[in-house]
Amino acid sequence: MTGKTYQAPRGTSDLLPPASERWARVEATTRTLFRLYGFQEIRTPIFEARELFDRGIGEMTDIVEKQMYVFQDRGGDWLALRPEGTASVLRAFVEHHLDQTMPPPYRYFYIGPMFRHERPQRGRYRQFHQIGVEALGESAPEVDAEVIALGWEFLRHVGARGIQVELNSIGCPTCRLPYQGALRAYWQAHADKLCPDCRRRMDRNPLRVLDCKNEACQAVLQGAPVIDDYWCNPCRTHFEAVRSALAALDVPYVRNARLVRGLDYYMRTAFEMTTEGLGAQNAVLGGGRYDGLLRALGGPDWPGIGFAIGMERLMDVLPETAEPVPALAVMFLPLTEAARGAALQGVQTVRRLGIPTWARMDVGSVKSGLRSAYRAGVRFVVIIGEDELRAGQWTLRDMSASRQETLSPKEAVEAIRRALGLDALET
Ligand code: ATP
Ligand code: MG
Question: How many CA atoms lie within 13 A of 312 on its CB side?
């Protein structure tokens, strides 16, 4: 009888080796590089009270309106799988009073899965992964530049090519008001050419139309008013300072006067990054300043700025490196039941040298054992049969030379170390 088979849910995927090893390397780079900038890791639950996202992201956003995985648990609480990381990080910051219990800087990064009910396609999934940062309590324009520089450095560091940084300032609630008015008037004049979503939202959230991916809307928004004519003085000054700080840091960027971000709380600096090989209109990184958000979530009236990188999109554009995955180097082959104990101890000894090792316990014969050793690509096989067990020795076979000799375990370990160039390692 054969069993029913199952597939991963639509829009999700399994991360299999060796791709999982590449992901782990990128994550390791994240941890090293982000710490250089003073960011520390934070891990929050993958579900939260639904209301947190309604408030933190905004009711009029795509995410809250149509993409959230919302459910009621068995106790009747309304929860949501997290669609992004910022709201959760800020919630944790407020809940644990980190402003009072921790020294500055209040800089955090996270790595983990996010969930959005979108139509799956290349670079767009229902469970995807983000690497993100949040810097809280820092309002200086140099910080905006530093955060952008981190994103850019990171993308360069992991090998992305053709990185393009797009930069804008979407103003503050004060100067955005007249801008929104101008946009609203413009959308109304062109309403017949906008998609239904935009027509519905153009009055209450006129900025969002600028972010619409719909082709018809794209054509209309080319002629839309730009924010430059509406910035208040502090916003203009801030933006100019961000630009000169980016120049000082040697981060190239292009100004995109129509760049806006999805979350309601974004203000002033907004940025996205694209790379070679991405689908059109797809960013690998998006971020911005959100000075009112922490307070709106019950925290201190502190500014904030952050970004998030889409891991799937990033991994998709990274060139394949020739870097070999650290594979198994040694395989133990106990030929009898009685030899398994010696093999078990043997693998532990070799592993303690930092050498990836595996014992194939259920082997039938030397021949089938060597066949699996060949398929596993190991360099050495340690054969322990009746004779070896009695003599307390190992037969060490060098697969690269098809040569073998019987040695004491100590001599064999020494030979493995020497061959793998690990002489300097501590035992
Ligand atoms: P898009 O405009 O492509 O929908 P977004 O503005 O919704 O992106 P953000 O909320 O800014 O995306 O998230 C930051 C990054 O996360 C994006 O730049 C992208 O790389 C990645 N991302 C967002 N949604 C998805 C998804 N459904 N699948 C895979 N990656 C995603
Ligand atoms: Mg989106």
Answer: 20
